[in-house]
Amino acid sequence: MDLKSGEGERGVETVKKSDTHEGDSAIDKSNTREGDLGLKAKDVGNISNKDMFFRADKIDFKNWDVQLEKHLSRVWSRDRDGHTKNEEWEIDLAKLDIRNIIAHGTYGMVYRGAYDGQDVAVKVLDWGEDGIATAAETAALRVSFRQEVAVWHKLDHPNVTKFVGASMGTSNLKIPSNSTSSEAHNSFPSRACCVVVEYVPGGTLKKYLIRNWRKKLAFKIVIQLALDLSRGLSYLHSKKIVHRDVKTENMLLDTQRTLKIADFGVARVEAQNPKDMTGETGTLGYMAPEVLDGKPYNRKCDVYSFGICFWEIYCCDMPYPDLSFAEVSSAVVRQNLRPEIPRCCPSSVASIMRKCWDANPEKRPEMDEVVRLLEAIDTSKGGGMIPEDQAAGCFCFSTARGP
């Protein structure tokens, strides 16, 4: 038996079996959403589901995918808004007090606030329902957010910013209108996800180094900061986590100048097979050659980035300040470009830098070895970078003389 109303138009054909009684099971129209599968209930009548065959070449699978995605999104959002807590990291939004904005980035803003009496930083990200992001961008953003939460919420180390909790896809965030500019507030997404972490009041390591650009840091402080960073990374690697964006801008300092690793937006659990980890993830200037070159990589890419950060901490300067991103990328991969180590730098420090940023990942040390090397350095006799106001007769960056 053919359904004439659907023939050619929807590509649906039915075959009536001899042992099937008419009206065995009518399709319940109340459970059929018109257009959901490119098929209307009225076109089917009283034909049983088991009596019906679909021509696959006529079915609009793309429309099915769109409808399914919308349905799942509605269900997921409804569950998120109305469900009871079923994840150990989910926060009680009633206890979250968001105050003033302290930073902003490409995908959202960071606010200072309080959660259950504790000073916190609240990283708020658009959930991708602004109508501007493409479906692929929205999906990538949500995957990145889930990834960040999955990595961060299990970590507990004095050199890693402490995770407090998160909320995904919520529309219940209460942000005071005077917490930021009217333009930023008006652009705040109707639905957002947020990550709540301990508030670290000292600002970023990057800003601290910039403030000390002229006078430089005492050698003891240089080693202390490098040790904090190396211990934090060693802990992450022991948990099979690769940060993938190690840079001074992603390190925070507390009031005691203790360094804490932050921003796990691109961190991920290390793959068993390095070939499963590819792609340019990180910040140019800190990215290892294998990452820049699109080759497989592992935790040793963090070791390379540490070497660059160690140089930056020692020199209180920026690597490759006069080169463009394209020039840095090309020269690091093809010409083995690295920051120039000052001649006044102790050999023990210079050696660690060179080992960490070796072009061959297999030759780079593990971070726990870097910790041991740093702990063995004697800081009692000095060895820090010469301050700018004392550098008139210094040949720290001059070409070596003699043979």
Automatic annotation (TrEMBL):
It comes from the Eukaryota. Its main location: cytoplasm. The keyword Iron does not apply. It holds the Pfam family PK_Tyr_Ser-Thr. SUPFAM superfamilies: Protein kinase-like (PK-like) (SSF56112). The keyword Phosphoprotein applies. InterPro entries: Kinase-like_dom_sf (IPR011009), Prot_kinase_dom (IPR000719), Ser-Thr/Tyr_kinase_cat_dom (IPR001245), Ser/Thr_kinase_AS (IPR008271), Ser/Thr_Kinases-Pseudokinases (IPR051681). Signal peptide: none annotated. Its EC number is 2.7.11.1. SMART domains: S_TKc. GO terms for cellular component: cytosol; plasma membrane. Residues 1-32 are annotated as: Disordered. It is found in: Cytoplasm, Cytosol. It catalyses: L-seryl-[protein] + ATP = O-phospho-L-seryl-[protein] + ADP + H(+); L-threonyl-[protein] + ATP = O-phospho-L-threonyl-[protein] + ADP + H(+). GO terms for molecular function: ATP binding; protein serine/threonine kinase activity; protein tyrosine kinase activity. GO terms for biological process: cellular response to carbon dioxide; regulation of stomatal opening; response to blue light; response to red light; temperature homeostasis. Keywords: ATP-binding, Cytoplasm, Kinase, Nucleotide-binding, Phosphoprotein, Serine/threonine-protein kinase, Transferase, Tyrosine-protein kinase. Residues 96-377 form the Protein kinase domain. PROSITE patterns: PROTEIN_KINASE_DOM, PROTEIN_KINASE_ST. PANTHER family: ATMRK1 (PTHR44329:SF271), SERINE/THREONINE-PROTEIN KINASE TNNI3K-RELATED (PTHR44329). This is non-specific serine/threonine protein kinase. It comes from Nyssa sinensis.
